[in-house]
Amino acid sequence: MAETRIRFGILGCANIARKVSRAMLLSPNTTISAIGSRSLDKATAFASQNHFPVSAKVYGSYGGVLDDPDVDAVYVPLPTSLHLQWAVVAAQKKKHVLLEKPVALNVGELDMILAACEASGVQFMDATMWMHHPRTAKMKEIISDQQRFGQLKSVNSMLSYVGEGDFLKNDIRVNPNLDSLGALGDVGWYTIRAILWAHDYELPRTVTAFADPEYNESGVILSCGASLNWKKDGKVATFYCSFLSNVCMDIVALGTKGNFRVHDFVIPFNEKVGSFYAVANSEWAELLLGCDPEPSEFKIASDLPQEALMVREFGRLVEGINKGEGEPEIKWSIISRKTQVIIDAVLASLKNGFVPVEVVY
């Protein structure tokens, strides 16, 4: 029996929506029912250029999508400053919400979004795609293996890229009125999520921003980093995020018995295979001429791109709720909120002279 196709509406024509709309068409249990933009011409062109089904409706407003009875769920790739308004309205209209990251400007805004979703009984999920790749599950298996990995001691994550063309002047991610979190919200979200994921979402006790972050003339963060401290078992973590450095997407996790590293955790170099390296019980080779054993490369195949796996999982959850067979999966709300809490703590440390900030959930 064919799976029920959850009908998505898309709010806006952001560039990332090209990738996610492709995923909706690749996923076996989702489709695109509507798209809305402030410009009807723009929405029409977007639907055509991205091969939407001929049945997909096109609206010259976001509200048109939310009022459409043939839309089960919405994907919201709008600028972060608009998330609170439109995610809350979507939830109130009983539409399930797949929200681009960063999900909000601060945890107070996110709490209002989550409260609206809970009140309406709709599913919330942020669009952090790498969480859904089968490689991520395999890495978690290794990091959780006490015999091979031991106790987690340190995680370092980095994500950077240099925006093309006039990115640093005109992209929404450097506009204080649209995405005031800048690099911290865009690429920092991933690095912070990687650290929390490695720690089974146990929050650190303190966050301390690194000195000398870089800002544009409008005060938007272009690069920054921070250290996270659990104040137990010697566990620490660091991250760096930037719009000013060459592409880098690394996680390095160190345990008392092993370690692993991945060089493309956000966007796999090959969408069909995700690789990473891990090693256990390393020792120096004779005369310190190397290490034994050498790290092993793991290659994890995926039948669908990670973004399609994300929307497939979201669609599965939505179908269960719509059929009365399940409740919204709250783990996604919890994970999003913890990520946002750390972003807020980094901002507080940046604004207060790089002092340690206590993490309050």
UniProtKB/TrEMBL annotation:
<comment type="similarity">
    <text>Belongs to the Gfo/Idh/MocA family.</text>
</comment>
<dbReference type="InterPro" id="IPR000683">
    <property type="entry name" value="Gfo/Idh/MocA-like_OxRdtase_N"/>
</dbReference>
<dbReference type="InterPro" id="IPR036291">
    <property type="entry name" value="NAD(P)-bd_dom_sf"/>
</dbReference>
<feature type="domain" description="GFO/IDH/MocA-like oxidoreductase">
    <location>
        <begin position="138"/>
        <end position="260"/>
    </location>
</feature>
<dbReference type="Pfam" id="PF22725">
    <property type="entry name" value="GFO_IDH_MocA_C3"/>
</dbReference>
<feature type="domain" description="Gfo/Idh/MocA-like oxidoreductase N-terminal">
    <location>
        <begin position="6"/>
        <end position="125"/>
    </location>
</feature>
<dbReference type="InterPro" id="IPR055170">
    <property type="entry name" value="GFO_IDH_MocA-like_dom"/>
</dbReference>
<dbReference type="Pfam" id="PF01408">
    <property type="entry name" value="GFO_IDH_MocA"/>
</dbReference>
<protein>
    <recommendedName>
        <fullName>Gfo/Idh/MocA-like oxidoreductase N-terminal domain-containing protein</fullName>
    </recommendedName>
</protein>
<dbReference type="GO" id="GO:0000166">
    <property type="term" value="F:nucleotide binding"/>
</dbReference>
